[in-house]
Amino acid sequence: MKLNIAVLQGDGIGPEVTAQAVKVLKAVAMEFNHIFTFQKALVGASAIDKTGNPLPEETISICKKADAVLFGAIGDTKYDEDPDAKIRPEQGLLGIRKELGLYTNIRPIIAYEDLLNKSSLKVKQIKDTNILIYRELTGGIYFGDRYLSDDGNIASDVCKYERFEIERIAHLAFKAALSRKRKLTLVDKANVLESSRLWRRVVKEIAPQYPNVKVNFMYIDNAAMELIIHPRQFDVILTENMFGDILSEEASVIVGSIGLLASASIGDKHAMFEPIHGAYAKAANRGVANPIASILSAAMLLDHFGLYEEAALVREGVDKSLKLHITTPDLNNKYDNITTTKVGDFIEDFIQNPDETNLN
Amino acid sequence: MKLNIAVLQGDGIGPEVTAQAVKVLKAVAMEFNHIFTFQKALVGASAIDKTGNPLPEETISICKKADAVLFGAIGDTKYDEDPDAKIRPEQGLLGIRKELGLYTNIRPIIAYEDLLNKSSLKVKQIKDTNILIYRELTGGIYFGDRYLSDDGNIASDVCKYERFEIERIAHLAFKAALSRKRKLTLVDKANVLESSRLWRRVVKEIAPQYPNVKVNFMYIDNAAMELIIHPRQFDVILTENMFGDILSEEASVIVGSIGLLASASIGDKHAMFEPIHGAYAKAANRGVANPIASILSAAMLLDHFGLYEEAALVREGVDKSLKLHITTPDLNNKYDNITTTKVGDFIEDFIQNPDETNLN
Ligand SMILES: CC(C)[C@H](C(=O)O)[C@@H](O)C(=O)O
Ligand SMILES: CC(C)[C@H](C(=O)O)[C@@H](O)C(=O)O
Q: Which ranges carry the Isopropylmalate dehydrogenase-like domain (chains A, B) (predicted)?
């Protein structure tokens, strides 16, 4: 297969972790006789530094022409600390999601057997947890009108949803549930929000088309608690943009490190693959950034194009790295010298030679 | 002291747990020679059933005349499952918060030594956690304009804040931090929301007035994770209405049961005290509801009127009940016959005779 992949490394640890995912994809191409080409483009704070724009036109056009986008991370403390900044790195990420119409963000939350003891949660609590979060990604309060009064004393944001925005992701979530434990939980705040009541209404209307999927509804406050005390009750979680942002980062505590969480952002024409973690400027260029989230995002990319065997091999490589403690410091209390690159090298080696790879 | 307390029991387990708090307050009045009078009023689903209105005028007027309000819980599954219901129990709770101007909701999160092993989190993770959440309670998306298009296909909610709404609660939070570990964390989503940027700006402006308080800023998604992996880093958390709702219910996992979390809702003229848990219709009238959250809310009421010794005695009673396993099933794996009433009786006995109380 020929795939033209746009690589948006972004800021902070973005370039380092993305480099490992690219390395792994190159090894996959080599072993399976695919032709993957990679084209870099600017986004985020680094794009602002070079062009004044967090999402240059050229980046948009490279992404639109590509078969898929591999995304690193964006953000910089200098903008976080300045609420008055008019141009912000996040506009690059939100902009590309919108430009490519990536309305469905899929975030798997899997408690790896080998990492159970790394979690803040008790092992018996999280064992066998396997959740797929379907987060709506191009609507809600992320993209509603914003307002700041001239005197700077009043500010507002609008959370708006239209029926079609809910329907299209809901169908994808129901279909995903069909091939899993056939349970779908809609998380909302329907006891307060009109937009949440629309979500609840639409999901109730669609549900009869999937008679084999059991649907339930949960308020976001309650879900934030239930996710920790009874994570195994969840199969597919469907939710709007902001609640999905909060729940999925919270869910990282189940997995043991946010450095493990991958995601796929899917639209009708385009697809982008990105770790759920941020840019962590402080950790950049120190070799400590965990590349697994980016590598697992690459595996989701392979799946997306039907390259299931390839994706499975990448995941096997990841599993083996975890089992052998070839992991960055966030997960490692056995070896203290395993760098970002070393993890990438190990998984690359594994793909080239699955039966022989060991720590070298 | 003379106190006239309005009692809004509400729905589900509300009446049962509130009855225990009233019992405890009566014991306090007796032992300390105070005169507490109690006046019941309708709210929530039970008020809808009887009057068609989740917040009858009479209830508002009783609350406005009272020195304080003791609130139970509201909500009913029949409304949760009907997104089209125009009249909803939650309007009673949101209405009374607004009518009384209760803009500051204070939610203490304390890891009780005797309950450390009840948490889903590892003991070493949560030991010594002591957080005070300051949740804004009368603004934001809870009270912004709502819209539903005539064809039912578009819905929206507005999250709006004005400077004065942020200032007044921020000052209270800073003052609270001064008498604690002198750390204040503002939780927001300033990388996306205009209203969050206003919060950040105002808190930055106020901060120099409290030079002894260390201020930091955290995005809500990150905070939802940090609360679980590093809870001890927090002292006072200040946040807007919706984020406070989510974070405080999530934080219950640290304490071991949501049935332990009390809150105080304070305004310039009025004050209301309520558990953070909901109505749990399914648990109602079975004697299993944990009354501690309501009893600790009563302790916050006593504190509010400067009755510190009285409040401390109530808390001692609660501590003793936890130590002796006089607790409802959510916390008890030793005795299986401790009912809601029995917990209330035990704490009442303790107040009447602090040195001799034991399980009877
Ligand atoms: C960086 C930020 C705008 C982004 C979001 O909130 O969507 C991030 O937290 C994420 O989850 O991808
Ligand atoms: C019942 C509901 C409207 C309420 C809220 O969201 O404020 C509750 O969850 C709470 O936290 O007091």
A: 4-347
Of B152, B156, B253, the CB nearest to A144: B156
Cα distance from B32 to chain A (closest Cα, Å)?
A: 38
Q: What is the DSSP string of B153-203?
A: -EEEEEEEEEHHHHHHHHHHHHHHHHTTT-EEEEEE-TTT-HHHHHHHHHH
Q: Which ligand has its closest atom nearest to the C-alpha of B79?
A: 2
Residue A358: what pLDDT? 58
What sign does the CA torsion over A268, A271, A274, A279 have? negative
Taking only residues 287 to 346 of chain B, the set having a beta carbon closer than 8 angstroms to any beta carbon of chain A reads none
- What is the pTM for the complete model shown? 0.96
CA of A86 to the centre of ligand 2 (A): 34
Question: How many other CB atoms sit within 10 Å of the CB of residue B82?
Answer: 15
**Which atom of ligand 2 approaches the CA of B242 most closely?**
6
Q: Report which bound ligand comes closest to the CA of A221.
A: 2
From chain A, the residues in CB contact with B88 under 8 A are 191
Is B224 near chain A, with CB under 8 Å? yes
∠ Cα B347 B349 B354 (to 5°)? 90
Tokens 């749990």 appear where? B280
Assess A84–B contact: CB distance below 8 Å, yes or no.
yes
Task: Count the helix, strand and coil residues of chain B and give each as a percent rounded to the nearest 5.
Answer: 45, 20, 30
Judged against a pLDDT cut of 80, whether residue B98 lies above it is answered with yes
With contacts defined as CB-CB under 8 Å, which chain B residues touch A222? 249, 278
The CA radius of gyration of chain B, in Å to the nearest whole number, is 20
Whether the predicted pLDDT of B358 surpasses 90:
no
Does the beta carbon of B207 lie under 8 angstroms from any beta carbon of chain A? no
For strands B2-10 and B68-73, give the pairing. Answer: parallel
Longest Cα pair distance anywhere in chain A, in angstroms? 66
CA atoms within 13 A on the CB side of A109: 31
Give the span between the Cα atoms of B306 and B272, in whole angstroms: 15
Instruction: Give the full edge-to-edge strand order of the sheet including B236-239.
Output: B35-40, B2-10, B68-73, B271-275, B262-266, B104-110, B130-136, B236-239, B183-188, B214-219
What pLDDT sits at residue B50?
Answer: 97
- Render pLDDT for A210-239 as a digit per residue (tens, 0 to 9): 999 999 999 999 999 999 999 999 999 999
B323: helix, coil or strand? Answer: helix
Count of all residues that appear for chain B in the document: 360
Residue B360's pLDDT band, with cuts at 50, 70 and 90, is very low
User: Whole-angstrom Cα distance, residue A139 to residue A136?
Assistant: 7
CA distance A126 to chain B (A): 9
Closest ligand 1 atom, residue B191 Cα: 3
Q: Which domains does chain B have, with CATH numbers?
A: 1-102+267-360 (3.40.718.10), 104-260 (3.40.718.10)
State the ligand closest to the CA atom of B96.
Answer: 2
Three-class secondary structure of residue A240 per DSSP: coil
Tokens standing for residue B91: 């309007």
- How many CB atoms lie under 10 A from the CB of residue A305? 15
8 A C-beta contact, residue B272 and residue B227: no
CB–CB contacts below 8 A, A to B: 185
Residues of B in contact with A146 (CB under 8 A): 193-194
Residue tagged 């405890």 (tokens) = B24
Q: How far is the CA of B102 from the centre of ligand 2 (A)?
A: 14
Which residues, in sequence order, are CB contacts of B306 under 8 Å at separation 6+?
none
Q: pLDDT per residue over B12-58, tens digit each?
A: 999 999 999 999 999 999 999 999 999 999 999 999 999 999 999 99
Residues whose CB is less than 8 angstroms from the CB of residue B333 and which lie 6 or more positions away in sequence, other chains included: none
Residue in this structure with the two tokens 């299986």, named with its chain if needed: B336
Q: Which 8-state DSSP code applies to residue B84?
A: T
Ligand 1 closest atom vs CA A137: 7
Positive or negative, the Cα torsion across B47, B49, B50, B52? positive
